[in-house]
Amino acid sequence: MKSIQRRLSLGLAGVLLAIGLVLAQGSLWLFDRSLRSYLQDGLQDETQTLLSALVRGPVGVQLDEQRLSAAFQRPYSGLYFRIDFAGQTWRSRSLWDRELSPMAEPGLQQALGEGPQGQLWLIYRADYQRFGQQITIHVARDYTPVLDSFRRVQRIVLGLGLAALVLILLFQRLIVSRSLRPLERVRQQIMQLQQGQRSQLDQQVPQELEPLVAQINHLLTHTEATLKRSRNALGNLGHALKTPLAVLVSLASREELRQLPELQASLHSQLQQIEQRVARELGRARLAGEALPGAHFDCAVELPELFATLRMIHGHHLQLDWRAAAGLRLPWDREDLLELLGNLLDNACKWADSQVRLELERVAAGYLIRIEDDGPGIDAEQREEVLDRGSRLDEQVAGHGLGLGIVRDIVDAWGGQLQLGESALGGLAVSIELPARSP
Amino acid sequence: MRLLLVEDHVPLADELVADLTRQGYAIDWLADGRDAAYQGASEPYDLIILDLGLPGKPGLQVLQEWRAGGVTTPVLILTARGSWAERIEGLKAGADDYLSKPFHPEELHLRIQALLRRAHGLANQPQLHAAGWQLDERQQCVSRGNQKIELTAAEFRLLRYFMLHVGQILSKSHLAEHLYDGESERDSNVIEVHVNHLRRKLGREVIETRRGQGYRFSGAVA
Fold first, then answer.
1. What are phi and psi of A68, to 5 degrees?
2. Residue A142, beta-bridge partner list
3. Nearest CA in chain B to A406
4. CA A228, CA B151: separation in Å to the nearest integer?
5. Do residues A176 and A184 touch, judged by C-beta distance below 8 A?
6. Which of the 8 DSSP states describes residue B80?
7. 3-class DSSP state for residue B138?
8. Cα B186 versus chain centre, distance
9. CB pairs under 8 A between A and B
10. What span, in angstroms and rounded, lies between the C-alpha atoms of A418 and A368?
11. pLDDT at residue A191 greater than cutoff 60
12. What's the pLDDT tens digit per position in A110-157?
């Protein structure tokens, strides 16, 4: 989609150009019209003067030279006449060796006649009755000076028009970019929303944008509320299922059942399957995934608490460190990320001898999370197997083998990559690449 | 060891009370958050097992009230809400450990043992070591070197309490408060009898009597 700015500029330039040309050309034409009709009056006067200069002399009708304008005497002066009278033709001296051809129609001629020295004539023909005779008088006037000045005016107007166009476009650009600034601000805020740097759009926007912004904010709140509600409902469901399960697990461990080891083993394994299934599915249902654009995880706020929790669970013999750039925020839901990091770090703590390290990094393609420990690690051949669904990474250490399953679910939901490798600390390194969320 | 169990699911509470009693703990059971908030702050418990989804008052709030009121008793949260975000919430409110349902009873025993040892500044080992004695809490017997001594349930309870409080003077009433639940008849003579049994089995100098003050476990062997 083209930018509004460009479209406005192109549209305005086109319209201005078209209207400007029509206006300039139209006004020139009108001017030409009125000038010609003004000149027509002058020419008509000339014919009347000529008519009145016709006098009856001693040798019949003759032209009284004294009453004629001097311009008729000077060759190519720009003013000419031709009088047709009783079979004879009188020409002004100014015509010199040129002929002023008679015109078919009386009045001002539409077409300009060609004259000497590149002159263009405006020709007027008048018919009179005098001395009982039909007298036709043609008067011509050179129109080229007017045309020249027209052309000059045309050039000036064109130059002025172009300058005005450039100026108008510059101002328009300024005005448009100024009035589009709120749009640009909203666009930036939506980007920030995607990157998890804000959770709502600013309400201080022009009237036109208000419904849009209000609707987006409403949707955000709504999604968040829905997520919270469904998480709460899942929590309740989990509670309702897991408490009786805890009773069953406890019952199955009773002294009386010790006498029937096969029955007890079978009960335990079935209960464990139910338990894993319930935990896994509830865990998956809890994921926010990509649903919340405003979600974010502030490393400096969340990680110290997570690490305090891990220290409390795993005792203080482990050295737990995390490293992240100051102010690093990951654009995903807080609970999802806590679940991801919690499970992986918990696993690392179970296996580590003395040290667990977490690194979070912003890279070009997105984010990189690395969790390392100095435990026994996993052989290269076994890593694939461990990554497969349902495989229990922590079989030998008390706890539930769900950690990696839910971690995979989360990473998959975000379109990320999970890899197992060898750590510089000597144990397992889990690296997760997460793509940046595109706006 | 006297424990408070706060759990509103009756069948689970019955199971836990029976199971933990077999492990030699004196258990008081409450199902309502408001009762728990009061009783947890007024009775001298050694450990509290707290469910979060309680009627009357939410478990997290109860815990916050205890901590705000200066109760330092270790608290183990037992809940079906096992997400990490909720775990962090629980530990932030002042819990010492977090166990999500469903759990294996064995796991619960281990967590309780570990919490009690941590609360008394002891390392978390499979057996309780104190003053040269080793207490096996699964077998409920005590050993020193190669010598292994079987204990009755009452003797085991008493010895475990002594071994977690080596060198401290413990009055009879203090012992009664911590060894019996709120329902039992507290007869200080019974404690005297069990102390004498322990002396007979472990040696006279193991527990000394401070006249007018109480008993002191030194673990000394003649």
1. -90, 150
2. A121
3. B83
4. 53
5. no
6. S
7. coil
8. 18
9. 89
10. 10
11. yes
12. 888 888 888 888 999 998 888 888 889 999 999 898 889 988 988 998
Asked if residue B149 lies in contact with residue B141, where contact means CB atoms within 8 angstroms, the answer is yes
A381 to chain B, minimum CA–CA distance in Å?
Answer: 31
The runs of H, that is alpha helices, within A352-418 are 380-387, 403-413
How many C-beta atoms lie closer than 10 Å to residue A258's C-beta?
9
The total number of residues written for chain A in this structure: 439
Determine the 3-state secondary structure of A305 from DSSP: helix
Backbone angles phi, psi at A45, to 5 degrees: -60, -45
Q: Look at strands A120-130 and A133-142 and give their pairing.
A: antiparallel
| pLDDT interval class at A98 (50, 70, 90) | confident
Q: Is A233 near chain B, with CB under 8 Å?
A: no
What type of residue is A227?
Answer: L
Say which DSSP state A197 is in.
S
CA A428 – CA A25 distance, rounded (Å): 83
pLDDT in tens, B81-109: 878 888 898 888 889 888 888 888 888 99
Question: What distance in Å separates the CA atoms of residue A2 and residue A13, rounded to the nearest whole number?
Answer: 16
**In this complex, which of B85, B86, B105 lies closest to A334 when CB atoms are compared?**
B85
- How far is CA B174 from each of CA A8, B168, B186, B213, B214, rounded to the nearest angstrom? 88, 12, 11, 11, 9
Least confident of A9-18, A311-320, B7-16: A311-320
Decide if pLDDT at A59 tops 80.
Answer: no
pLDDT of residue A438: 59
Residue A419 has pLDDT above 90, yes or no: no
Residues of B with Cβ-Cβ distance to A343 under 8 angstroms: 84
In chain A, the largest separation of any two C-alpha atoms, in whole Å, equals 166
In sequence order, what DSSP letters do the residues of B140-192 get, joined into one string? TEEEETTEEEE--HHHHHHHHHHHHTTT-EE-HHHHHHHHS-TTS---HHHHH
3-state secondary structure of A156: helix
B53, B83, B110 member nearest A335 (Cβ): B83
pLDDT at A381 over 80: no
Mutate to test the interface with B, among A232, A237, A241, A249 (most CBs of B within 10 A): A249
pLDDT given at position A397: 41
> Which one of B8, B87, B92, B125 would you mutate to disrupt binding with A, by most A Cβ within 10 Å of its Cβ?
B87
| Interface-testing mutation among B8, B10, B12, with chain A (most A C-beta atoms within 10 A) | B12
B142 beta partners = B135, B149
User: What is the per-residue pLDDT across A216-265, written as a single tens digit (0 to 9) for each?
Assistant: 899 888 988 888 898 888 888 888 888 899 899 888 888 888 888 899 88
At position A175, the amino acid (one-letter code) is I
**Cβ contact (<8 Å) for A309 and B84?**
yes
What is the pTM (predicted TM-score) of this model? 0.68
Using only C-alpha atoms, chain B has a radius of gyration, in whole angstroms, of: 18
Residue A159 — φ and ψ, nearest 5°? -60, -50
Residues of chain B with C-beta less than 8 angstroms from the C-beta of A249 = 102-105
Whole-number mean pLDDT of chain B?
87
Q: Which residues pair with A127 in a beta bridge?
A: A136
Distance from CA of B104 to the nearest CA of A (A): 6
Tokens of B196: 């004498």
- Look at residue A390 in the predicted model and tell me its pLDDT: 47
- Report yes or no: A139 and A117 within 8 Å, Cβ to Cβ: no
**Do the Cβ atoms of A339 and B97 come within 8 Å?**
no
**Hunting for tokens 């338990």 — which residue is that?**
A275
| Mean pLDDT on A167-173 | 89
Q: Which residues of A touch B82 (CB under 8 A)?
A: 238, 279
pLDDT at A68: 82
